[in-house]
């Protein structure tokens, strides 16, 4: 079986996506905590030796460093035969929601949450703009989940793992009470949390945490 090392920091929802996928597939990984807040990923040395794109996460598979969460989720789904598509129509739907998440939901939520909770000073107008966009995206997802148990239908896929990652963090970080504002998302997050082996990010990803200034 392959051996895995995951370079991460606990607040990274993208790191959590890979950690959760591996865990749900019955695999373990060696955690490699990364001082993202201290700026290590912006150094020339780190980019030369770990990830030229300057991003977390990095997943080492048998010593080979691999990056970009979405293709890694797809690779793991194919490798383990779990949380992937079974037909061409399902494959299209999975990719449709996975790409939408990367460009819209995760893209905006990751930035909004980081600015809101993990920076001491931020521009209220910028936060207002990001939240307005997120409310639109969350409304789209909530509407979809009113008629679908998971992203592509009756069973979870890597699209669900990708979309739920940043949404499952504590509400004092992202500032949303989904039980009140988006009940279909809240119910879906519960279905994801009921999957055998599921654990939240702060259990799967140990290490020094960043200060939450939104508390």
TrEMBL record:
Residues annotated as domain GST N-terminal: 2-84
Molecular function via GO: transferase activity
Keyword check for Transferase: yes
Keyword Transferase: yes
Pfam families: GST_C_3
Domain GST C-terminal per the UniProt entry, residue ranges: 87-215
SUPFAM superfamilies: GST C-terminal domain-like, Thioredoxin-like
Keywords linked to the UniProt accession: Transferase
Stated name of the protein: Glutathione S-transferase
Species of the source: Bradyrhizobium forestalis
